[in-house]
Specification:
With about 220 residues, the protein is an alpha+beta fold. It has 6 helices and 11 strands. Helix 4 crosses helix 5.
């Protein structure tokens, strides 16, 4: 699934909106760390915890038939993961970079939700947004070309990082390929293609600067034209 970016908020109850701030969950959470490449949980593990990324990047992934890996989503600072799990996790979660997370016991969250019904509404909204994001990802993989997929991915990452023109990409080209349903060689070639066209500039090993946002947006929307 695509990540849903819901940031920590001021710790106050909003009577008008009948909601309770997600930041209140941090009172019942504990901070854990994960080194790059470390697994937080495996697909099929009992789903005992939810997580929020404090720093770093985490990916969710699953092995498909034939051993091919599919990366469902990248989770950045402020993102929650594991909320969509039933009794067991449907995919594995791995740290892309060194990461710090807040871990919440599902049973403790359940008790807090019983005390604050507004919090239940916030969590339902979050899961609903994840499902919507998953549908968008399915359309992206089903209808778009390689260049359209990469353009969509870059614009989504830019939006999640504040909407500016500089994009941090801590994941590898292979990670991006496994997320977009492409080969690593195709991703690398497509980066070069849109760089040569002047749409982006590559900055160091993990940075991209958008030079022509309108052209990148046209690429991303080409499949729906």
């Amino acid at each position: 699934m695509l990540a849903t970016v819901i940031r920590s908020e001021p710790d106050r109850f909003s009577a008008a909106a009948h909601t309770y701030p997600l930041a209140a969950l941090d009172r019942i959470g504990s901070v854990v760390t994960a080194r790059s490449g470390e697994t937080l949980f495996h697909a099929g593990d009992e789903a005992r915890h939810y997580f929020k990324v404090k720093t770093g990047t985490v990916r969710t992934c699953k092995l498909l038939a034939g051993g091919k890996r599919h990366i469902g989503a990248f989770f950045l600072e402020g993102d929650y993961l594991g909320l969509d799990a039933d009794d067991t996790y449907g995919c594995s979660a791995e740290a892309v970079t060194d990461a710090e997370l807040i871990k919440y016991s599902r049973s403790a969250v359940g008790r807090m939700v019983d005390q604050h019904p507004g919090l239940r509404r916030r969590l339902i909204d979050l899961v609903s947004a994840e499902l919507s994001g998953a549908q968008t990802q399915m359309m992206l993989l089903g209808r778009k070309t390689a260049v359209e997929r990469l353009a969509s991915f870059l614009l989504a990452m830019a939006e999640r990082q504040g909407g500016g023109d500089h994009i941090s990409l801590p994941m590898t080209r292979t990670d991006i390929a496994d997320h977009l349903g492409l080969s690593t060689e195709t991703v690398s070639r497509t980066f070069t293609e849109i760089k040569i066209k002047g749409f982006i500039r590559l900055v160091g090993l993990d940075g991209v600067t958008v030079r022509n946002r309108a052209a990148l947006e046209d690429l991303a929307d080409a499949a729906s034209a």
